[in-house]
Fold:
Amino acid sequence: MTTTIPQQPTPAGAEPGGALLEARGVIMRFGGLTAVRNVDLTVNKGEIVGLIGPNGAGKTTFFNCLTGLYVPTEGTVSYQGTVLPPKPHLVTKAGVARTFQNIRLFANMTVLENVLVGRHTRTKEGLLSAIVRGPGYHRAEAQSRARAMELLEFTGLADKAEHLARNLPYGEQRKLEIARALASEPGLLLLDEPTAGMNPQETRATEELVFAIRDQGIAVLVIEHDMRFIFNLCDRVAVLVQGEKLVEGSSDVVQNDERVIAAYLGEPFDATSQDDTAARETPGTDQAEGTTSEQENDR
Ligand SMILES: Nc1ncnc2c1ncn2[C@@H]1O[C@H](COP(=O)(O)OP(=O)(O)O)[C@@H](O)[C@H]1O
Ligand SMILES: [Mg+2]
Structure:
């Protein structure tokens, strides 16, 4: 895995500092169930922010509200000071990309093709150009392929570019989801359980990848159950319990907060423990859902 992505002119480009994403008073109700209760969350430029909490706490639902998959019952989500339209492709276009807790890849497409799909919001060539296949189309396609290959290098998947996505081991499928999300040239990347189903080595590699992504000026909001991963990585951590934000603060503050210990951790997180297994065994850890589905991205 390389640690640099050549800089791209990106509309979502970010200098460090300042608010990037601002969610205000987000409420999501499903009939009688309130899955997200009046949640405020800010992600600043250059930050890695963690979102933790037991299963069913509303973490994925909150992500869906941020990315236009759900229209929140109440509240607003702004990116760089502008309210995001509740349409996934427009949210991606605005500069917010995501991965899914249940991997969503095109299983029968190659690794490279999956990343190329992720670039569609950044390519200007339209349908007419694709039909005519003039010089503009060929130039844009070559640029897209070059960029997609850079991202595969960056995520350590370049040697698998021509493999079918469904033939990748599970951990590499999760990396491919990240590469595809990066292909939309985001300013903010949302990761929903990026290490679920990974072994400890893959998890550590993913940690490095997230740091490398942040070093490229891309802010990250990450949901995870692996507390070592969260507390190592995150500048700030928010804890959701039963749809409400219980606590928010630095890793140090959150891991020692009695309410967080009572509602989620069970016992104080032991950062000195070298035992990766213990670090992963937090309450409510989901079993990995290892299916690759042929679903449309962002829908
Ligand atoms: N589309 C939906 N329709 C009805 N209930 C939902 C829907 N999506 C999520 N929920 C419910 O919202 C709650 C929060 O779920 P979720 O956001 O997946 O939690 P988490 O990601 O924290 O595990 C759960 O009770 C879940 O059953
Ligand atoms: Mg979830």
Residues 59-60, 101 surround magnesium ion (ligand 2) (CB under 6 Å).
